[in-house]
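Following up on my earlier thread - several people asked me to post the actual chain instead of describing it. Fair enough. Here it is, all 154 residues.
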Amino acid sequence: DKHKFERFLPTGGAFFAGSIFGPVTYTPCPVLAWKNVNGKPEIVAAGTMMNADAARIVVKRIVLTGYPVRVHKRHATVKYMFYKPDDVKWFKPAELYSKHGLRGNIIESVGEHGTMKCLFNAPIKQHDTVCLPLYKRVYPKYAPSDGQDILNVK
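Reply from S.P.:
Thanks for posting it. Predicted structure:
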């Protein structure tokens, strides 16, 4: 299960999932979220607990943008998305999209400053913006193990 990270809880009756470290409880347990307003508690959200799932993560969406500097029908040379050729090589399998709804892929890196050649599914225009969506895990934080046990007390 993947859930999108939201910085603020919007009004209007939308459904959201939140994660906490807390005591073990059984579902469906009622949950109330409170906020202090002028020293008085005010209810912000109400809901029920979801089942515990170790595979459930919260991801944050980040969009990298670049601009086509040379356009020839479906091919474009895109600048300002990356600054190193190694970054272009790393993201080569990822799919690109444009603000006008085109889909495309990275063909190759050009030069030493992160410029790249891209191929789109239809002719691209000079004033379009090329986007690359990325998703980053926010919760639970991933901490790689270095082989030492943190709880090992001597």
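The first strand starts at residue 2 and ends at 4. That should answer part of your original question.
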